[in-house]
Amino acid sequence: MEHLVIGICGGTGSGKTTLAQKIYEALKDDALHISMDCYYKNNAHLPFEERIKTNYDHPDAFDSDLLVEHVKKLKEGESISYPTYDFSTHLRGEKWVYAESKKVIIIEGIMLFAVPEIVELLDYKIFVDTDADVRILRRMLRDVKERGRTLDSVANQYLETVKPMHEAYIEPFKKRYSDIIVPEGGYNKNAFDMIVSTIVDKIK
């Protein structure tokens, strides 16, 4: 069976996870959705005070070698067990998730296009392009409600690492690698319908 790997990249709060999830739900049993967030490096050797100072918006924050290994296995039709991540403690979770290979493998993450070894494995590359003001508002709401952060910590992190890392490692790859650029991600119904239609035609 031929496997199609869809890579979805975009800045924090851009709507890439929403788009990935909607594509996954539209394809039902034919798709697998994995977030690059699961592959943050395990910094258990660092005390919490040092972990919260780590730059998590740099390519080096991710265990890219493991992600590459897993995508290769999935493309070969093999199953994997991928890690989980706890954003409140900045540690890899004890639970690993078993996943079987599917016709369509959807990988999404902020640094997806910043790792050449990953880009080479992607059959379709989608960039989600959303206004910076919208993205930071979405990030603030998410991090405060879902990840136990304070407004001050989110604002400081955005100014110190998120914004400069976006300009250095995300924005430059938008036109270099993207097959399609989608404004507003999963909230763009026309783009979503077109993407799903293309994928369905391909896997048939």
Structure description:
The chain is α/β, with parallel strands linked by helices and 204 residues long. Helix content is 42%, strand content 21%. It has a five-stranded parallel sheet, sandwiched between helices. A two-stranded antiparallel ribbon has the order 3-4. A hairpin with a 4-residue loop joins strand 3 (80-86) and strand 4. The longest helix has 19 residues, at 151-169. The radius of gyration is 17 Å and the shape is globular. It starts with a strand and ends with a helix.
The fraction of residues in strands falls at 15-25%
Order of helices and strands: EHEHHEEEHEHHHEH
Task: Quote the average pLDDT.
Answer: 91
Query: What's the number of extended β-strand segments?
Result: 7
- Helicity, as a percent range: 40-55%
Category by helix and strand content: alpha/beta
Extract low-pLDDT stretches.
none
Tally of alpha and pi helices: 8
Radius of gyration: 17 Å
Strand order of the largest sheet: 2-5-1-6-7
Summarize the biggest pleated sheet.
5 strands, parallel
Q: Per the principal axes of the C-alpha atoms, what is the gross shape?
A: globular
First-residue to last-residue Cα separation: 11 Å
